[in-house]
Design a protein that fits this description.
globular, 7 helices, 212 residues, mainly alpha
């Protein structure tokens, strides 16, 4: 596993540098368009759980306006997502700044997606194992449904990756990600502008009980 870890880190650094250099003009253009259409604040920065749940600041391009209602409450995602933001998500261009997180060693190119800090207390012990590796820009769950599958299935795929990870599988996931990005597949969860909030295993069990 040590050799695989070394290969993985080398792959992360080399590919991140290549992608950042070649996408620099695109990132500059996206930054200008966000500034013109959404105002100040080109980047979206948020604390996310990394390896073993340790927090780090993840960076993405902004896709939503900071719009609020008359009481000062943030509007739903679907009302704040801009036309430009929709394009950035559909093409996955909003993810490009995360390659700087990879260079910093906070993320890997391949691994379970870093979700919200609030979710840490909602996982089962089995689901929590997704944090036994560094989070990634893409992962096994992303190439097997991404936002079109349930949370339960997504975590099942994440844990599968933790148990079976290898440099060969990382390369396979990277290639499949490029293909899915070009096809713009599985970007949104059905009926939602973004993935629905994960309420936790206990909440899902209660929901299923009421449906019986």
């Amino acid at each position: 596993m040590q050799v695989d870890n070394l290969s993985k880190r080398c792959f992360d650094i080399i590919m991140s540098v290549i992608i950042i250099v070649f996408s620099a003009p695109v990132m500059l253009l996206v930054s200008i368009l966000i500034r013109l259409t959404m105002g100040k604040g080109v980047f979206f920065k948020q604390m996310r759980p990394g390896l073993h749940g340790k927090p780090f600041k993840m960076i993405k391009f902004r896709t939503m306006k900071n719009a609020t209602d008359s009481k000062g409450n943030m509007l739903p995602d679907k009302d704040r997502l801009t036309s430009l933001g929709h394009i950035l998500r559909k093409t996955s261009l909003d993810e490009l700044p995360e390659f700087f997180n990879v260079l910093n060693g906070e993320m890997s190119i391949v691994g379970p997606r870093p979700l919200l800090m609030a979710y840490l207390g909602r996982y089962t012990s089995e689901q929590m194992r997704r944090h036994d590796v560094k989070p990634g820009i893409t992962g096994w769950a992303q190439v097997h449904g991404r936002n079109s599958i349930s949370w339960e299935k997504k975590f099942e795929l994440d844990v599968w990756y933790v148990d079976h990870r290898s440099f060969r599988i990382d390369i396979k996931i990277f290639v499949l990600t490029v293909m899915k990005t070009l096809l713009r597949a599985d970007i949104q969860h059905e009926g939602c502008a973004t993935m629905e909030v994960f309420q936790g295993h206990q909440f899902e069990s209660e929901q299923n009980f009421h449906l019986l």
